[in-house]
Prior knowledge:
Radius of gyration of chain A: 19 Å
CATH superfamily of the largest domain in chain B: Aldehyde oxidase/xanthine dehydrogenase, molybdopterin binding domain
Number of strands of chain A: 14
Helix content of chain A: 25-40%
Largest sheet of chain B: 7 strands, mixed
Radius of gyration of chain B: 27 Å
Oligomer: heterotrimer
Number of domains of chain A: 3
Distance between the termini of chain A: 46 Å
CATH architecture of the largest domain in chain A: 2-Layer Sandwich
Amino acid sequence: MIPAAFDYHAPTSLDEALSLLAAHGDEAKVLAGGQSLIPMMRFRLAEPGVLVDLNHIEGMAGVTEEDGHLWIGALTRHAEVERSDLVRKRYPLLHEAASVIADPIVRNRGTVAGSLVHADPAGDWGAVMLACGAELEVHGPDGQRMVPIDELFVTTFMTSLSPGDIVTGIKLPIAGKRSGGAYEKLERKVGDFATVAVAARLELDDDGVCSAAGIGLTAVGATNLRAQDAEKALIGKKPDEAAIDAASRAAAEAASPTADNRGSVEYKRDMVRVLSARALRRAAAHAGGEG
Amino acid sequence: MSATKAQDIGGLGHSVRRKEDARFVRGKGRYVDDVKLKGMCYLALVRSPYAHARLKGIDISAAMKVPGVLAVITGKDLEEAGLAWMPTLSHDQQMVLATGKVLFQGQEVAAVVAESRFAAADGAAAVRVDYEELPVVIDPHAALGKDAPVLREDRDEKSNHIFHWEAGDRDATDATFDASDVVVTQDMVYQRCHPAPLECCACVADWDTVNEKMTIYMTSQAPHAHRTLFALVAGLPEHKIRIISPDVGGGFGNKVPIYPGYVVSAVASLKLGRPVKWTEERSGNLQSTGFARDYHMHAELAASKDGKIRALRVKTLGDHGAFNAAAQPSKFPAGFYNICSGSYDLENAFVEVDGAYTNKAPGGIAYRCSFRVTEASYLIERTVDVLADELGMDPAELRKKNFIAPDKFPYVTPLGWTYDSGNYAGAMDRALEMVGYEDLLKEQEEKRGRGELMGIGISSFTEIVGAGPGKQCDIAGIEMFDSCEVRIHPTGKVLARIGVQTQGQGHETTFAQILAEELGIPVGDITVEHGDTDTAPYGLGTYASRSTPVAGAATAVAARKVRAKAQKIAAHLLEVDEADLEWKDYAFRVKGAPDKAKTMQDVAFAAYTNVPEGLEAGLEAVDYYDPPNMTYPFGTYICVVDIDKGTGDWKVRKFVAVDDCGTVINPMVVEGQIHGGLTEGFAISKMQLIDYDEGGNITGGNFMEYLIPTAVETPHYDTDKTVTPSPHHPIGAKGVGESPNVGSPAAFVNAVIDALSPYGVRHIDMPITSDKVWKALRDAGIQD
Amino acid sequence: MAETVTVKVTVNGVEHEARVEPRMLLVHFLRDELDMTGTHIGCDTTNCGACTVLVDGVPMKSCTMFAVQADGHDLTTVEGLGDNGGLEPIQEGFHQEHGLQCGFCTPGMMLVSKALLAENPDPSEAEIRRAISGNLCRCTGYQNIVKSVQYAAKKIRTGSAESTVGGGAS
């Protein structure tokens, strides 16, 4: 399994990277962690003529809270999120998701932003970011812009970004006083893509009523999906069993899975229900201060 | 002279740390892909994207223009050399490179040889093949239907039927069924899976133009047999072929057959006069090399109301894919499948098997088992549980009631095997005790009351290994003996060469232990070599757990031959009559005066310096051991699972394995083999499947879809043993590597089914994935 | 053909420099260019971990990195374990606890375990199983690999460890 030949560039600044992309157009592809791209190149399912390797650009990695939001630099590896104390303490959904992506070695190399823009519906970060209402900071030929996650995914392996764009980071709302989250992933073994996974995030007000909710789904559609009806079923209510049950059923309705070796359509749809309930229960417990 | 103790020299029964580890933990192992020869070029294969298609043409012009490409070889080129087809070990033939049409996805269509890996890959990508798609046959039942297209145009017989085979007495069995109180019937599929050793296949073929000698470094479990087959197929004189199988990164049966990649590499080396390396990719390995199983089985048991099993009736259809390339040296097309009466004392049994061609990869091989024994063991152990369910009897009690009693050995089964020894209840009692069976039953009852799903699964298997006696086995007419050559140097150090080939089992250590025991020479002073046909004595290779039963026996016998000569020299040195000496505590001792003694080291020096008159110098012997019978390891495995009612996922909470492989050479190595085999059994029961869609596209053709469990999913095992030595083996050993893979799938499956049995579930086919469990629960009206 | 690129890496403390095609995978660079064949290839989909090496101390799959991406980095391969022919604790653990059979996964397993122990000197069984879950083994069933890592952990922490498998050392 030998990739087709390509020219390699390792820019040391974002501007240099952007001009390389501008110069090579469709022929060029951005290389970050490479954990999806390189296997595809080995099978010659991807044959870019030019690779622009972002790994030499300083300052693109890291997880920090700043200016009222959480910032994840584009080159942040999954493992860095997994190991971050800040994330572990305040963003359980992110911590849990980071801990079950692929396998531990892949997590040392693969990046959060790279995974997002790969736009594989079985990718974990898409569901998480949909649940969190994240925004992507994107630099392109026309300068910088913010792309809401809801506008990112077009279809499988396709985003709304242009070939000349580079994601520089991801901005998430800062965790509220009473917020909780959980990621429930059903996989056949470590290293497998999800059969189904559900990302859940809840914000509670002082009365324990749900003020915000986010539910993202993995591997049950052409893209990661946001289960908006399920979110609505929770907002304004206490996340009790009845509310969680209603939300879980709504989440299952939002799914449009296809059958494969991981399971039938019916199975996957029901797993959205089962895993949504589990994720929401844990998110609620965590938000309530019990988690 | 003080007595030497077994542990001082690393004799039998000691957990001697492995000699081979020294190189592996330093990264100094030498696997085939590590071989780098001067002037070596690289071969890449072009594979068919279609499962069934006519080859309209192959355009190699673009490939030949890729810088660095030296040659493109197609089936037509091989046809001219008479090498387009090669014989299989199952009286069939197989295409080396496709001619006429392709018969499975991933089939080898052309080979590109180039100066570098890059150029070979680029050349392969540039080969243009024009295909005309043909109707695809995937289901073996459909393959035998009237309207099925005939896949094999090269055969005289115009059907997809390969063979029909029977064992046992049909009429007597039918009569027993008719006269029995209870009959249970179960259909089950032992799914197509693949051994997937971590190292894929590879070779470096090196044609020496001056000496006209072909050396092939090759991932081979059977180098000598492969040399002979190369000689027979390619017409090269056998002394001009040398097969070297260096370190092998796991085999499990996958490296028994000869594959197109080896043959075409040899052809390329002959053509170019340069060494040619072929390294298979994982996807190629899974898509085209020896798969296993794919047996579609129908089992029936007849019993009395009180649980005495009387007869077994089995009808089976085997899917062999495009070519019957079953790499099995038994004389029977379904191998030793008629071991399926298992551990039970039956009045009658009858088995019939048919084979069919389909548009799938050719095979199958014996994946960590003797030929079709895993299927047989699974069938009986699964069906006994079905019977227990029908009778409302405890599965342990039902088994015990029907075991062949220890005093009945040697026991002739109704299907024709003579079991050498066994104590089945002994192994089961130990396993029941270890797992705490009574407490588990109580816990299960409580959990069932709460609607929780917990299952206990038992498998009390009997294996058949050590192929094998000439009346049952041969490869190309060569009987299945194996060999050892022992040479003691003047200073008492030993070089031994054996005809079998390790793929991780630790032969360099365990065979040295057999010699240490027989010769009284420390393990550290003994070198064991194998895998080079120019130096090792002829042997049939390592698979079917035959190393210890056959080559291990040869090793003990060769050592005893050395000892017989040594005794004459010892008598000469001690100036006593040979008959006055006995071999005791690892030395020749004068009877009645044990302090008057000579060690093997003493004798060795004398063998080169001071031999008695009339005796030739030197101290060496060779033995070719033809086993008088197979060996029959056995054991009981008990598995406890908990099922997540919401997702259908099941987890192994506890697994107990009690094995009886007769005399144990190295307990540490045996335990390691058991852990490994159980894990493969676990994988088969839960996740391993080579599947095809209706268009013949393989859906398990890489490690993303063909699942190998990691340390996280893999259970912890508690192991123990009973010891019932084989009465016909020189040291009483039986072989162990395959027992855990043969015996365990039924234990895992029986546990899952037991958990679901309150809901009327009696069987689910492997791999038991979460969605299948969920569906069974749904069908029973259960929703979490 | 694409332009070649210069790769300058430190492998096991020794600097190497070569000009290679950009598409050369790090694992092929180690095996073919540097003749360090202890790093293996077991799959083509980044699943098996047989190619694991340490890049600046962090386990990476060298089949899913281009050699040029290792430029300027410090690599450790199995050949860099131990010194002067002696074994370091992780190697000794694998030997003593029978943590290997065919040896093909062993280099990757040892390196990922070494990285684990550098971070967590006393890992639980669950932590070990998790840490090695990017590396597949077909022979051992992992149980003795876990023991091997525990042996090494103890040896590093206390200076000595006793083996436990097969009724202890012999």
